[in-house]
Each structure stands twice: as structure tokens, then as C-alpha cells.
Amino acid sequence: MKPLFPPIWRLSSSSIIIRRTQVFFRLYHHVKKPISLSHLHPYTSPLNSSEKPKYPFLYLLDSCTDPFSVKKIHTHLIVHGLTQILPFQTKLLSSYGSLGNTKYARLAFDRIPSPDLYSCKAMLKCYVMNGCFDKSIGFYWYMRECDVEYDNVVFSLLLKACIKLVDLDEGKKLHCLVVKVGNPDIFLLNVFVDMYAKCGDLDSSVGVFEEIPHPNVVSWASVITGCNQNYRPESGLLLFNRMRLADIEPEEHIMGSLLTSCSMVESPHQGKWIHGFVLKTGMCMNAFVATSVLDMYIKCGEVTDSRAFFDELDDIDLVLWTAMIVGYTQKGFPSEALKLFCDKKWAGLVPNSVTLSTALSASGKLCMLHLGRSTHVLVFKLGLEEVEEVGNSLVDMYAKCGAISEADCVFKRILNKDVVTWNAMISGYAQNDFGHEALELFNQMRLDGCLPDAITVVSALSACVCLGALCTGTSFHCYAVKQNFLFNVYVSTALLNLYNKCGDSFSARRVFDDTRNKNTVTWSAMMGGYGMQGDPAGSLDLFSKMLEEELKPNDVTFTSILSACSHAGLVDEGQKYFERMTQKHNIAPSKKHYVCMVDMLARAGKVEEALKFVERIPVGTHVSVWGALLNGCRLHSRLDIGEVVVRRMMEMEPESPDYYVLMSNLYASDGRWAEANKIRESMKEKGMSKSPGSSIISMDQGSDRLALNF
Q: Which of 256, 354, 572, 646 has the fewest CB atoms within 10 Å, i.e. is most exposed?
């Protein structure tokens, strides 16, 4: 006797499904009564239903893992005339849709003579699940034409499509229909709250929320999250207070949204209170909540607290580790970011593209080329070199480290260059004084069809500055006006810097006066421009006006002010500004500030006082500080101190020929030609030679005039 069930072992999954299909169709035609297959699928389990299954073959479609298997079963259904049975038709289109084949799902639906609500919901779900949101809206209008009923599931699927399409008008139409039909449940009302918020209509979202008789925790979560999405975090915090008064127990997602609200308003006090609330209520400190707490501390500037919280966590995953590295880098602690990245304690975590991009950015900020190259090797091993943000970070890192040829090599290997990629390379050329190459690349960018943005114009203006190409810079000014980029404070500041360094103080002041929302950098650039043009009074007057605007000066501002005082001989005022910087504004003096102070004292003839000031510098004295003192010695013929200064400079950089030349010139200015010649002979014996100085000028037919097509 031929066995009823042929052996099916050692077959692929598709072959097994096809073999089972053949067996069931043999059963279907040879057995008079339906066979119970309750041991194979819950659809037919006697525990779930007291009746025997009408169609035992439906479970086969659930077993399919690819469209090919569904097509095979579909073929058998057609051959045996079972495609007119509505459950089979609905199950077929659902199976096609779940495997991503919406085309065949729609063909199966169109063959249904009289589709019911369940079939329509299955087709609508196929469209939404596969991202065909436009088609789902079109199918909804088809349902209306066919007078098919609606239920809350249909509306929720359509609202999801409206959210993805950010289609507020269609969402409002659905809302009107729901009001007309009546009887929406709380689940559907929550979806409306979410839809309005994500489509940018927070007032309507709150309005729907207020109409919910008894909002649940999902309702509160939707409206609080919507406040953050529409940049009204204060409203979210107020809603949380109402939620507590309503005795609704918050859950993790609400706490995460509230911590995001605190980050947006930069309120560490409120954030710490919410952190304490999470600990007090014993809420699960899962990865989502922990990341939100960490992100809140970082964005509120509490980097120390964020690291303390990070160290207290027992289970640290890749997201938390990456968040801490990103926080360190964004808040100006790249060295700490790299220490955490290189710590062997986290060697078991495999970095992702965000982690590696941040590590490359930190390496670039610190000009740590060796570590950047090592990270590049890791990127290559993990196969992340083709990731967009990683490629951009590699270009930026190599450019900032001065390895412009390597940056160019990575740039050329990137196939799909976006505006960030082009900006990184153009900026890299400008930072490394390759002005011509930067401007040529700007032309190439436009020829390749990539539209420059405000950051591109800033980099191009920097290239014009290093070339001294005022005419080309003026062309970029026109382009910025044409593209409406002047509202960007960075573009305005770059233009200001261009005109100042090219000697056009009138145009610089006009740009400054026309700039809206001036920041500290803009004010500092204008002050520095006055200093470069020999107008220290203008710098000091502008500083007073800046303080009247209640803007907080930074280290660059005080560098400009101290430099202006130095050139104007205002020693007493300069010392007062230096004390105000350290005591009132809590700005630690940098090398540039010390240079300005020494130069100011030495220019005024107070050479001994300048020497004492240098000896009191708490950190290691840079050679440029001694250079400022030496300039004062030369101006006031203080050869005795000048000799001491030059010897100290030669000890610090013995291989540099510049200081030998300074020493020789110092002797020559005092008429001690024998000593001067001796220094020159010593340079020849050591094989030293000073590079000749050079200047750049702009000519009408000069090379700075590039063919820029705007």
C-alpha cells in the first residue's frame, strides 16, 4: 500500500511546504470528511474551538518564509478551484503582504468579488506595513467608494500613514469622519493625539487630549512627547504635574520624554529632580531611561555628574558608552572622550558608526594623527568605511591633523558625496592654507550638482582670506546675498573677518551693523579688526557696547582687547582688563593672553616688569611669550635682558634658526658686529638657514581670480 504521507526529511523549508501542500490536497479530494490537524497549528486546535476546522490548509500560508512558497500554494489553490473561498483569498493577500510583495497582494485582493471589512483591513495593513503610505490613503478612498464599513482599526492604520506622510489635512478629514461615525475608543483617540503632534499641530493634539474622559498613561505619554517634538518642553513639564495630580503612575517612556524636556530648556535642577523621582519610585533603570538621564546631564553642561552617573551603572551597553563619548566630544573634552574610547574595560563592546565618527572627531580636534589612523584601521576591519558619517569624519580628521593628501584620498573614494563631505574637504584645504585648491573644489562641487550651503560659503571665505583675494571674497558676498545666507551669523562673521584682514574696515563695519543676532564671536571679530587697522579706541568702545548688550565675553574677546591696549600703550587699562578676565569672568589665561600682556609691558618700556611677569606665569612658558619680551628689548635697546631671553628661546627650540637670527640682529642693532658675525658663522657650521620671508599681493590678472560661476 502506498504510504499516505511521503517522507519529507532532508528537504529544504520551501520543498517541505510544497510537499505538505500536495499531501493536503490529496487528503482534501480523497477523504470525505475534513481531517483535523489540531496538532499542527493553533488555528485548528480543539482546545481553541469545539468545532472541527473548515479549512485545514490555511496554516500552510503561515509557514511560508518567502514569496516563492506562497506562489506555489497559490498555484495549487487555483488548480483545485479553492481561490473563490473568501478566507483563502484574504489569507493569500495577507501572506503576500507580510513578505513584502504588495503587488501580488493587491492582485489577490482585486480577484475577490465582494471584499468584506476583514479583507479590506488586511490589504490596508499590507500597504502600511510595507511603507506604501500613499497607496494606503488611495485605498481608503476606494473603500469609501465601495461603501465598505469602517472600524477603529482601519482609522488607526490610516492615521499611521498620515503620520509618516506628515499629512495634516488628510488626518483632519479622518478626524471629521470619526466624529461623524462616533464611538472612538481611547486607543484611537491616543493615535489622534500622536498624529496632530507629529504633524506640527500641537494645539489640536492638546485639544483632543483634553476631550478624552479618562486619559490613560499612553495618552499622557503621547501629549508630553508631542510637546518636545514641537519645541515646547515647558508645556510637557506642566502636563507632568497635572498627571501626578491625576494619580497616574508614569512609565519609562514618559520619564525619558521629561528628561528630554529638561535637556531642551537646559534645566539641570529640574532634571536632577526627575532623576531622583525615578530612583525614589523604584522605576526600572533600563537602557532607555539611563540613556535619557545621561543625555540630560551632558546637554545641561553637567559633564562631571554625567560621568559619575555613568560609573554607577551596573550594565553598560553600546548606546550608553557611545552617549558618554559623544557627550565628552560635544562639550569640549575630546581627550576624555578618547580615554573612554581606548579604555580596555570596554574592549568587549564593538563600536558602531556613531562611536567611530565621534572618536575620529575627537582625534581631529586634538590633532592626534596616530590615533586617528588606528581608528581608521578599525573602521576598515568593521566594514564601516562606506557609511556616510564615518567617511565624512575621516576626511575631517585627516584635514585637521594636516594630512591633507590622506584626506583627499579618502574623499575621492567616497562614491555618494553629500554637502557635508564636500564641506569637510573644502574646509580642510582652507585650514591648511590651500586656498586655490579649496576654491577649485567649490567649483567642482557645483559642477557635480551639489548645492552649497552656508557652511560651504564660510569655508570658501576662509580660503579667500588665506589668499588675500578680496575680489573673489566679494563675489562670495554677492552669492551669500543671492542665496539668503546672510541671516546665518557664521557667514556674516566670515565676511567680517575677510574684509578686516584685507584692510577694508568700512565694508567690515557695514557687515557688522547689518548682522542680526550678533554673538560673542561676531563682536570679537570686529574688535580684532579695529586692532589690525590700528584703531584701539574703536576696539575698546565696541567692548563697552558689547557689555551693554549683556553678552558674555570669551577668551578671544579679551585677546582682542589686550592686543588693542598693547598697541595703544594703555598699560593700566590692559592690566585692569586682564584682572577682570580672570576674576570676574573666570576665564583662565591662555598663551595668547600672556603674550599680549608681555608685549604691552615691553612696548611701554617696562622690560624688567615684563620679565618678572613672565617668571610668574604658572604654566610652562611658551617660546612666543619670550619672543614678545625680546621685541621690547629690541625697541628699547635692552641688550642685557635680550641676551638672556634669546638664550632661553634657543634652549627651548635649539634646532630653530630663527632665534639665532634674532640674536645676531640684536647684537647688530647695538653695533656689536663681531658677536653678530660669530652667531652667523655658528649657523653655517650647524647647517642652519632661515627661510626667506614672502608676501602675497592681489593683482587684476592675478591667480586669485578664479572662474567662479554663481
A: 572
